[in-house]
Amino acid sequence: MTDDDTAAAVRADPTAIRSFLQAQSAVAPRGWLARLLGRSPLSVESRSWFWAAAGEFEVCRSLSGLHSSNLVLHSVSASFEGKLIDHVVVGPAGVFAVHALYAAGEEVVVSALGLRVAGHPLPELRRARHSVGAVERCLMEEAGGEVRVTGVLAVIDAGAVTMTERPLDVAVVDARALTRWIQRQPRTLTDERLAELVQAASRPATWAREVTPGCVDAADTAAFTRARAEVFAARLTRQLWILLGAASVAFAIVAIVLARILSGA
To answer: N or C: which terminus of the chain carries fewer CB neighbours within 10 A?
Structure first.
């Protein structure tokens, strides 16, 4: 077990929630003393999945708020290399290939060519660009005609996002505003073309492997919600113990100082 529930920036893997729940199922429940002291409910293995799962959970929750005119696919494989695109959205505003990045409270700095989190370069913009081309090829082969796909990087829990130069081909969006951002984009598809692309995206033959029809099933959502609440409650408990300890030390110092003053008087 570990009491360190701090997070590093991670890509919000579209399979992370299920992987987290599988790892966490092997962890023994905490006893009353561990809960009282705020000991983390996570193991080393499950903690490695937890923050990626948290990112996946937030983006899934955001996309579930899209209007029903949008088709949302999850864990899409647009090539036989095995790399998954977190989400593909097909709607009146066009086609969007969405990737998620959990920033763990760190500053995100975006330039035209790259992205840094806490000063460390990450390949997320390049990955998003590759996804755009892959989705375009798959849909054009199945639906015919030209298909324009917009790459989107949904950033979760960033301490700050600094845009030194806006990328021309990938939109960097706060995950909390993802649904609103998509719905505010101007309409680019006619009803007829939208229907063609929705049909093409819905066919299993379009993709390299079968897509996930739902982001996370209801049972996994409920289980992860409970686990997340337990993790955050444990963290809050530890913080309260730290504050209580600091207050006790401060009180003891004041008491000693007052005692010396009064004894000297």
So the answer is: C
DSSP 8-state symbol, 166: -
How far apart (Å, rounded) are the C-alpha atoms in residues 265 and 262?
A: 5
Contact status, residue 101 vs residue 126, Cβ threshold 8 Å: no
E strand spans, 56-169: 71-76, 85-91, 94-102, 107-110, 115-117, 120-122, 149-156, 160-163
Q: Are 201 and 71 in contact (CB under 8 A)?
A: yes
CB contact burial 64-86 (16+ within 10 A = b; e otherwise): eebeeebbbbbbbbbbeeeebbb
CA distance 201 to 90: 8
**Under 8 Å CB-to-CB from 24, ≥6 apart: which residues?**
41, 42, 43, 46, 227
**Quick count: other Cβ atoms within 10 Å of Cβ 219?**
9
238: Cβ contacts below 8 Å, ≥ 6 apart: 3, 37, 38
